[in-house]
Amino acid sequence: MKWRVAGGMGVPLAAAIFFMLPLFTSSTGDIRHHGTSRSRGWRGGVQPSADVTANNSVSNVTAQLGGTAYLHCLVGHLSERGQVSWIRKRDWHILSSGKFTYTNDERFQVLHGEGSEDWTLQIKFVQKRDNGTYECQVSTRTGIVSHYVRLQIVVPEAFILGSGEHHVDLGSVIHLICIVEKSPTPPQFVFWYHNDRMINYDAIRGGISVETEPGARTQSRLTVRGATLKDSGNYTCSASNTEPASIHVFVSEGSNKMAAILRRNTSAIHGITSSVTCLLLLSSVMVHFGLR
């Protein structure tokens, strides 16, 4: 059974509840940690070493936006009546005591197996606001013993190599490379779109291939052979764990490449001129009615 208390407790109330909890351990109670390994922080199924006593120690955990963070705390020689508590330092909110959770945010949960020294705070679907320091705290007869975990949330980013537009000759090959970085966990997929149509498996067009190399810096290469005028348009790289990135491709004959650039620049200038004209007309109307 899990006991949840609606969140939003103030510091005095939170402190009062915390000290009313049965936080008693043996005089030999200690907190142990497994160093500052970042990989063990976000990868599940890893049991860290418990051979170092470390009061007031600090470890670092990196988690990806939208993923799951695991904050480990190893507590040795805990008596039967002892309790381990997790506190969020940003607002001094008591998140848990033992296996009980004291927040209405269901993303938080304490994982602890019978006989294990590991009291893990699990945070699902991590958000940017989860970034910060968390304290694993045990009260002993000789004082407070704490271990701190600094949680860093990283946001993956995607971009296509090159500027905002790409020019190729008619009949040549379109090569586009999309990079996904700042991603502890590689994206599950990378899809390419031409305008609004996904083209990874385009059997009708043919001559299209996509090669993706996952990793800390994932690379996805799009190749379109025998470019035609219909292949002009917007190309988008969409990964599973980040916002999409786009680039505009112009396909034209060699002699018409400059004409294509001029048409795009002329269109942009026309849009700016139209906006200025509207502003001038609006100003004239306001002045006319203001003087009457």
From TrEMBL:
Which Gene3D superfamilies does the entry link to? Immunoglobulins (2.60.40.10)
Annotated keywords: Membrane, Transmembrane, Transmembrane helix
PROSITE patterns linked to this entry = IG_LIKE
Q: Which InterPro entries match?
A: Ig-like_dom (IPR007110), Ig-like_dom_sf (IPR036179), Ig-like_fold (IPR013783), Ig_sub (IPR003599), Ig_sub2 (IPR003598), Ig_V-set (IPR013106), Zig-8 (IPR037448)
Q: In the UniProt record, which is one GO cellular component term?
A: neuron projection membrane
Q: Where is the Ig-like domain?
A: 48-146, 156-248
Q: A GO BP term, please? A: synapse organization
Source organism's superkingdom? Eukaryota
Carries keyword tRNA processing? no
Pfam families reported in the protein's UniProt record: Ig_3, V-set
Q: Give the protein name, as stated in the record.
A: Ig-like domain-containing protein
Name the source organism. Answer: Parnassius mnemosyne (clouded apollo)
